[in-house]
Prior knowledge:
CATH architecture of the largest domain in chain B: 4-Layer Sandwich
CATH topology of the largest domain in chain B: Aldehyde Ferredoxin Oxidoreductase,  A, domain 1
Shape of chain B: globular
CATH superfamily of the largest domain in chain B: Aldehyde ferredoxin oxidoreductase, N-terminal domain
Largest sheet of chain B: 6 strands, mixed
Strand order of the largest sheet of chain A: 2-1-5-3-4
Number of domains of chain B: 3
Radius of gyration of chain A: 11 Å
Number of strands of chain B: 17
Strand content of chain A: 25-35%
Strand order of the largest sheet of chain B: 2-1-6-3-4-5
Number of helices of chain B: 24
Distance between the termini of chain A: 37 Å
Number of domains of chain A: 1
Largest sheet of chain A: 5 strands, mixed
Oligomer: heterodimer
Structural class of chain B: alpha+beta
Distance between the termini of chain B: 32 Å
Helix content of chain B: 40-55%
Strand content of chain B: 5-15%
Number of helices of chain A: 1
Bound molecules: iron/sulfur cluster
Number of strands of chain A: 5
Amino acid sequence: MIITVKLFASFRSGRFDIKSCEYPPGTTVADVADSLKLPQGELGIMMINSRHVKLERVLVEGDTLALFPLLGGG
Amino acid sequence: MDKIARIDMGAAGGPKVTVGGLGDYAGLGGRAMTSLMVAAEVHPLAHPLGAENKLVISPGMLSGTTGSMTGRLSVGCKSPLTGTIKESNAGGQAAQVLARLGYAAVVLEGKPATDDIYKIYINKDGIQVIMDNSLKLMNNYPVIEKLRKEYGDKVAYMSIGSAGERKLLSASIACTDPELRPTRHCGRGGVGAVMGAKGIKAIILDDAGMKMRPPKDPEKYRDANRKFVEGLRKHPVTGEGLPAYGTNVLTNVLNEAGGYPTNNFKSGQFAKASDLSGETQAALEISRGGNATHGCHRGCVIQCSGIYNDKDGNYVTKQPEYETVWSHGGHCGISNLDTVAKLDYMDDNIGVDTIEMGVTIGVAMDAGLAEFGDDAGAIRLMEEVEKGTPLGRVLGSGAAITGKVFGVERVPVVKDQALPAYDPRAVQGIGVTYATTTQGADHTAGYAIATNILKVGGDVDPLKTEGQIELSRNLQIATAAIDSTGMCLFIAFAIMDQPETFQALLDMLGSFHGIEMTGDDVVALGKKVLSAERDFNTRAGFTKHHDRLPRFFYNEPIAPHNQTFMMKDEELDEVFNW
Lengths: 74, 578
Ligand code: SF4
């Protein structure tokens, strides 16, 4: 299945900003992070289609997954 | 900080300075000082620009010490924008210098009989109030340039631009940064108009010959400060994210979450958000020889700020904050960072609140004064404010007034103060804070974004109502306390997640005063401040019916979540029920 993955802030270095990726059915957010060598401890904000999700969430065809490190501002 | 200076601008024969002890205000600083004093001494029905209002300027409880992050200055008064009590704080050098000079507060009182303008010079020998009409209607950058020739570079400056002198309701008070640029503003609520009404153009703070404020227990203080700094360096937000990208790293986050108010709150996502993002901004700043990591005062270890240069490498402005990039950017359909930077410079120079001004321009665009996405149109409207034309005066008086004058229904304000950069329909928790804070719509008063969106200090679903009241209550209490310490609020990201860093903060406060400080003491301080503020607002005529968002947030769902603001009125009324 095809997933759009978006990376932000420091996660972009050495990787990409946005990319369409092929993953097998049943892939979780944690699997995607592993495949991109993003340490789980560094994951701050995870969203699928603009909604916050957890690591074990299973992706489906056409999802947009956004991954951010822990961030703040104001 | 063992004295309070009062300057009566209406005294017969000219301004009169009285310096006295702390009295009932002993131990207070920052927001605790300004709010308790305004609540006790200002008539709640006073005209904000009249003789009965007071402008209280107070460094935080730990300002002027060797403690890091302690450079926050609070300014308080009855707000001409909202009619409520107001505390507006800023970084820059002023708090440290004023605290080392020994003043827990400088209070501007009365009303001058003439339209002469004055500057106040404070040094170790005392306070002089000097008439200087040569400064009339100058803006902040040229004023500081001129004053530097007279007072040099080893001082801190506070000033108002032309907006403050014209008593525009969005007028700010500028504080200079370590490079003496007037870029740090007590922005919200029109505090600059109150300073203008007192006839004060600038305050020069000179701490030559003064020492750091000594803690009661120096060893413990040093140790606590070291642990505190370690905690800030270790946390990913205060140690990495904020230094590298600044607050504008939020553009992509809020846009992704569908909470980025676009084209005057018509959508929760902006197609061109990535052009405005902190990632884009930091790369641009570095490529132009600017700086993406800069502190607004000496002693800041987070350094969320930066320097924004033009394409030829010349200084334009400090790194525009997320709020500014949003208000002048996505809120107005504008996606060019150079336009935003120019408007940021104009805000700082004219001396207006960047949130109020940007939101107002978006409302003016809704009224047809310019098209959304019209960069030149936005700059043209700001030039009207700069010139002080009748149109400029309307715009400079904020979103609520502009909406009324031009017949706009969608006006994002609470208690007549413009909403910041988070849509309350997509982030219900921040809507609770906007509606109920004593200050008029204000994100910093109870930054529910942390838990709703950023997942720092807990996890509350931004699209649901559950848990939001309690969250906003606790954040508002904690913030009122932090705003009193002189600490930059961004320390909250680390202290919410790391108990040992919170303990280090308590130990700093305790060892400075030679007492034990507990979390309960902090909560008690926060409640005391909020209670005084609420009480003032009640006496000024505010009721629970003012603690609401504008109706369109309840009636118009916003994309992509197609949700409205769902908190019930009865729930909002529980925020201060502790
Ligand atoms: S973190 Fe940012 S706002 Fe806070 S003191 Fe440092 S530079 Fe100033």
